[in-house]
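Chain A, query sequence.
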Amino acid sequence: MTGDEIRKSFIEFFEQKNHKHFESASLIPEDKTLLLTVAGMVPFKAFFLGEKKAPYKRITTYQKCIRTNDLENVGVTPRHHTFFEMLGNFSFGDYFKRESIKWSWEYITEVLKLDKERLYISVHYTDDEAYDIWVKEVGIDPSHMAKLGDDDNWWAAGPIGSCGPCSEIYFDTRNMGPNNEELNLKFGEEGNRYLEIWNLVFTEWNRLEDGSLVPLPEKNIDTGAGLERIASVIQNKENNFETDIFTNITKEIKNLLDIKENTTASKIIADHIRASVFLISDGVMPSNEGRGYILKKLIRRAYGTGATQNEKVFNNGDLFLHKLVDVVVDTMKQAYPELVDKKEMVKEVLKEEEEKFAKTLKSGTELLLEQIKIEKTDKLSSDVTFKLYDTYGFPFELTKLVSDMHGKKVSEEEFNEKLQEQVNRSKNARVVLSDMIKDEFIDDFYKKHGETKFTGYETLVDTATVLSVEKTENGIQLILDKTPFYSAQGGQVSDKGIIYNDKFKASVIEMAKKSDIFMHYIDILEGSVPQVGDIVNLEVDKVFRAGTMRNHTATHILHKAIKEVLGDYVNQAGSLVFDKGLRFDFTYNKALTKEEILKIEKRVNEIIQNNNRVEVTYTTQEEADKMGVIALFGEKYKEIVRVVDIVDYSAELCGGTHCSHTGLVGSFYITSEESKASGVRRINAITAMSAYEQSRENMDYLYDMSQIFKVDQSNLLEQINKNKEELKEKDNEILRLKEKLIDLELNETLKGYEEVNGVKILVKELKVDSEDLKTIADKAKLKLDNVVILFAAKNKENIVFVSTVSENLTKKYKAGEIVKFIATKTGGNGGGRPDFARAGGKDQAKLASSLSETIEFIKAK
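Chain A, predicted structure.
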C-alpha cells in the first residue's frame, strides 16, 4: 500500500464505524498557547476540555503536524521528522476502551494485514480494564503484553486537569541492530527493534490540585497512528525515508545536488522541504520570531546542508530548494489538493529566503573550515560558533553539522550562554502540548446553563436574566442568559454599551467568550451591583457597532480586492476591525508599489459604490467548500458555518457583524502599507466619516501649502520642484563660498605646527563646523609635506576629531591610533585607516589637555 492508499483505507474504515471525516486543520493552530499544530488532537482541544461542544461524537482525520524539539535527530535516525502526519480517530463522550481497542486491532490485522505474531501491546500498570480487553476479548498472548509506568503509558494535559492511561501498539521490526545487540531485547525496553505505530489515549480522569483523581463526566478517546511509520512497516522498509512518501523527493534532491546515495543530508533536506512547503502554504513566512523563526531555521538548515554536499551551491550560491516544490506538491496533492494553487507562491518565498542566506553562507563556511583546521583540540570554541551566527547569520545546526563531518564537537549550551536572545527564541520554537487545564467554573456553568444566546445579529436592545456575578481582576463579570453584545473574535473588537435596570446603571467595558458563554465586564456608573436572578436591560452603542460593521464589511471587500490585484494565492494573516478603521495583514513577500495600492483602493471603492447586497446564510462546511467560500482557520470544525456573501463579489466564513449593503461603508481610504514581518504585509485603512475627515484634512493641508507658495493647488507640485532646484543651487553656492573661505583661512590654520626630526606635527582645535574638518585636513596635508595632522571641533555637547597622515609616514604614524588615543581621553571612541581616521569625544572640558597629551603621544613615535 502507498501512503495515499493507507490514508484512504484509514478514513474509510472509521467512516464505516460512523465517524465523520474532517480534513486536516492548518499548521497554525486556533489555540494561542501553541505556536504550531504538534499533534493530531490539537484541532479538537476545545472539545476534549469541554470548552466547545463537539459537532459530532465520532471524528476521524489525517492531520499534518510539525515538531522541532528533536531537530538534531532528523535524518540521523530512521524515524524522526519535523513534518509528519497523524491518523486519528476520536470519541467525545461516546465509545471508550473496548471499541477503541478492538477497532485498532481490526484495522491493523484485517485492513493492513500485519502479522499478529509481530504485534505487541503495552498498557498502564494500573489499567487492568484495558489489559483484560486485550487479553480476554481480543486474544493477545500475555507474552506480547507489557504493563509500563507513567513515562510510557500515561497522558496528562498538565499538572492538574484531564488525564488518563494509554495503550500503545508496537511492531517487531526484527531489526536486531548492526551487531545483533537487540537480539535478546525485551519488549518495553529501550531500543529500535519494537516500533510504536499507534497510541490509544483513554481520557477518563480529572486530576485535582491535591493530586487526587476523580472520574470525568464524559470519557474521551484520542488515538494517533504515525503515517510515516505505518508506511515503513507496510512497505517493509527499515527507514521512513525509503517509503513512497519520500522516494520521489529524495530522488530529485539527489539529481539536483548530484548525491549518489540516500545520505543523511538528503534526508534532512527531504524532511525540511516538506515542512517548509506546508508551513508557507498555511501562511507562515520566514521571520525572526515565533513560527516564522522555525520556518526560517528549517529553510537555512536545508540549504546549508545542501551546500555541504555540492560545490556549486557552496561556491556559487546556486539555489535549489524552490526547485523541489513541484515534487513535494506532486507527492502530497492527493491528500492536500490546496497545495497546487499555492505552489508558485511557495516557490517565491523559498527562493527569496535562499537568496538571502546564500549571500552569507560561503564566507561563513570558509571561516568555519579555517577554524576547524586551526583548532588543535577535538572541540570547536563557542567564540567561533557565536561569531558565525552573529556575523554571518549561520544557524548553529549548520555549524554543528559541518563540525561533525570534520570530527569536531561543538557545545550548544556554551553557544546559548553567549546568545540569550536566541535561547528565548529556541524556547518558543520547542513547542509542546501544554496549558490544557480545564476551566472548572466555565465547565460547570456550561453544564448547568448551556450557551449564552447571542441576539446581536437581530437587535441592539434586549432584556436578559443575570445568571452569574463575579468580582475579577478585570472588574465585575456578568453572565446573562442572552446578550446582543458582540464579543471580540475574528478580528472584530467587542461591542460597547450599557446594562441597567431601576437599581443600577453600568457601562460595558469589555467582553469575553469561552465555551459559547459570553462574559460582560462592567463598570458601575450608578446604584449597586446587580444580583443573580435580576432582569436587566441591554443597549449596544449603535454608533460604535455601526463603525465596526462598516469596517468589517470593508475588510472582506479588501481581502478579495488584494487577491484580484496581487494574486489568488495571497491569504489573510490577521486583522483588526474597530469603529474608526481597520488593519489587514496578508501573506506577501514584497512591498506593494504605489500603483498596486491605488488599484486595491480603487477596487474597494468600486464595490462600495456598486452597493452590492450583503447576505448571511448558514450551511455545512462541505457545502461552503463547494461554493468556493473563503475559509479562514477557526471556522473549520463547526458543524454549521455562517457565510457572509457580498453578492456577485466575495463570500467568506465569518461570525462578525456586517452592513446590509456595501454602500453603507461610505468610502475607503488606505492610510499606510507596511511590513509586519518577513513575508507578511499590513494595510491600515479607514472608512466612512473617518475617511472623509482624513480627506478633508489632506485638502486643508494642500490649501495651506498653496497659500504659502502663493500658487494654485493644481500648480503646487510644480512649484515645490522649482523651489527644490533653487535650494539645490543655493546649497551648491554655499559650498563653493565655504571652500573659498577655507582657502582664505588656511594659512592661519597652518601656523603653529611643530617639527620633530623632519616630521611636522599639526594638532589644534578649529572654530569651524565639524562637517568641514575633513576638507580642511585634506587641504592642509596638500600644503604641508611629511605631516601628521589632528584637528578637533566642538559640536554641541560633543567633540569631533579628524586625523590625516602623509602617505610616506603611515608605517610609523597611524591616524586610527591617534584619534583613538585622544577620543578615549575625552570619553569617546573611534578609529580608521592609517592615512585618515575620524573619532568622537564627549568631555569638552578635557579637550585642551588632551590635545597637549596627543602632541606628546605623536612625538613619542
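The CA atoms of residues 46 and 52 lie 5 Å apart. The first strand starts at residue 20 and ends at 21.
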